[in-house]
Amino acid sequence: MKNYLFLLFLLFVEPIYAQTNIQIDANSNIGEMKPFWAYFGYDEPNNTTKPDGQKLLSELAALSPVPVYVRAHNLLTSRGDSPGPDLKWGFTDAYTEDKNGNPIYNWTVVDSIIDTYISLGMKPLMEIGFMPKALSSKPEPYEHYWSTGGNLWTGWTYPPNDYDKWRELVFQWTKHSVERYGKAEVESWLWEVWNEPDIAYWSGTFEEYCKMYDYAADGLKKACPECTIGGPHTTSPRSDKAYNYLTKFIEHCLRGQNYATGKKGTPLEYIGFHAKGSPELVDGRIQMNMGAQLRDIQRAFEAVNSFPELKNIPVIIGECDPEGCAACSKEREPKYGYRNGTMYASYTAASFARIYELMDKAQVNLQGAVSWSFEFENQPWFASFRDLATNGIDKPVLNVFRMFGMMQGERLSVNSTSSFMVNDIITNGVKEQNNINAIASKNGKDIWVMVWNYHDDITNMENANVALQIQNLTGQKAHVSHYRIDENFSNSYEKWKAMGSPQNVNERQFETLEQAGQLQLLTSPYWSNITKNQLELNFDLPSHGISLIHISQP
Predict the structure, then answer these.
(1) C or N: which end of the chain has fewer Cβ atoms within 10 Å?
(2) What InterPro entries does UniProt report for this protein, alphabetically (predicted)?
(3) Whether 48 contacts 113, CB under 8 Å
């Protein structure tokens, strides 16, 4: 009877979690730990030079072992009559015309943006767009007022009224960049033409997009023959429309007649496309759909591989996110309410690991996957935009990138008893059970293991006990540092809620939130014994939590 009561006590006082066994072979290199995650982007270019924007950019630069690439919309957009930058809207006034139609180039605002990147050791993924008002074939109405319910697809989306002037604009921009930053620097950038021309971001035909691309590429190459240009940065290729647009564009670049030169083919030096998940509300709760995003990537890789001429061409996932609308808050659409907490963080960890798997399977040269998430100015605290920071405070998802930034060298094989491989997720999602898995890398005597506990359902609270075993180690001891993202660690959102969710944060609260937004250790680092060439670690991992274990040997 006493034993029975004791077991009941343990059941209700100490939760018993299902154990997940994760095994990692320290000698099993499976490929480079390519930092393709070190790419970020946003719609609102003017936020680049704001204090919070500069703070976030400096943090992104600091967390990455390689130069971070930054992609921004609206680098050529005109101000029009708008009072200032807004959600999904920004401008540089780089191009205007005098009363006789002669071009006037003004690089002041563009330079302030690019200067910021260069000063931090970052690189622009330079988006040639959108259409300046003076060049738009339908300039009125020009600016949009999407945030207040206006039409988004206005004059900035239209083809140029003069393709020669469009080419000259790109030529002058590139020439100016070379003169300002040096030829070697500009040659290290990436250039693209437009964004998502297969939907209403482009109010022209497919042929007109190809023509605009050809003229832009011609202008770029005349100023900088060694500069890299690519595209078309189409939307999710799981749809036949987007897939066909992508493949038709590739066909045009490889074998079609160049509109600008009259010759066969046009420069295409990397392939760009976008991949998005598709969350929805199910019985009032948020349910993610990682499978949709992974299917986008799988199908785009298939498109690239269908052209033998593109073997080893660099591939850029120009936007790589859980869904499509960064500037939509949970007030606008409740299904975006997952973004403040650890759901966004665990989704990012789990999905990027499966992108590595897709890259390996397709044997493609994946160079970058742009997280379309930055920061928004003059917005409420934790409004649930898809951003990395709110009002200068880092959100939990940013700490996943800090974890990735620590992982270097070669990836190691991982076996988990609660894993989901990429085809499982594409077909069935992560709904039947939690995906408790890991990605690991090794550089010399250092090993990093990132472990996550993910489920598509935000209300899932199934914690896990992880038994982590690292095999084929040498020596007798290892130094272990365990970092954690969960409700209690590396989580400014939970700290903010504990303060009463203030919208007027005082200086002391700000300092507390700022500290809570950094990546934190679960425990103090410690030494652990290696027995029979194995290191065994056991720990509990809350639902939607992420651990990074750094193991170093003397």
Answers:
(1) N
(2) GH, GH39_cat, Glyco_hydro_39, Glycosyl_Hydrolase_39
(3) yes
**318-to-23, 232, 272, 371 alpha-carbon distances in Å:** 33, 9, 6, 8
Q: Is position 11 within any domain?
A: no
User: Given phi > 0 = left and psi -120 to 50 = alpha, else beta, which region is 533?
Assistant: left
CA distances from 54 to 113, 114, 318 (A): 10, 12, 22
* Dihedral (Cα; 375, 108, 105, 209), 10-degree rounding: -20
More confident residue, 441 or 3: 441
Cis geometry, peptide bond prior to residue 130 (ω within 30 degrees of 0): yes
pLDDT one-digit tens code per residue, 529-542: 999 999 999 999 99
Q: Which of 183, 207, 184 is nearest to 256 (CA)?
A: 207
DSSP 87-121: TTB-----EEE-TTS-EEE--HHHHHHHHHHHHTT
CB 229 within 8 A of CB 217: yes
Per-residue DSSP letters for 377-402? Answer: TT--TT---SBSEETTEE-HHHHHHH
* φ, ψ for residue 392, nearest 5 deg: 85, 5
Task: Give every CB contact of residue 384 below 8 A, 6+ residues apart in sequence.
Answer: 329, 330, 331, 336, 337, 338, 339, 340
Helices and strands counted in the chain (H then E): 13, 24
Q: Does residue 295 share a domain with residue 156?
A: yes
Q: Are residues 472 and 383 in the same domain?
A: no
Q: Is residue 6 part of a domain?
A: no
Find the domain containing 267 and state its range: 35-406
Q: Taking all residues of the chain, what is their mean pLDDT, rounded to a whole number?
A: 95
3-state secondary structure 147-190: HHCCCCCCHHHCCECCHHHHHHHHHHHHHHHHHHHCHHHHHCCE
**How many domains, the chain?**
2
User: What's the pLDDT score for residue 419?
Assistant: 86
How do strand 271-276 and strand 228-234 relate by DSSP bridges? parallel
Cα separation, 464 vs 260, in Å, equals 59
Phi, psi of 524 (to 5 degrees): -65, 145
Q: Of 261, 278, 251, 428, nearest to 347 (Cα)? A: 278
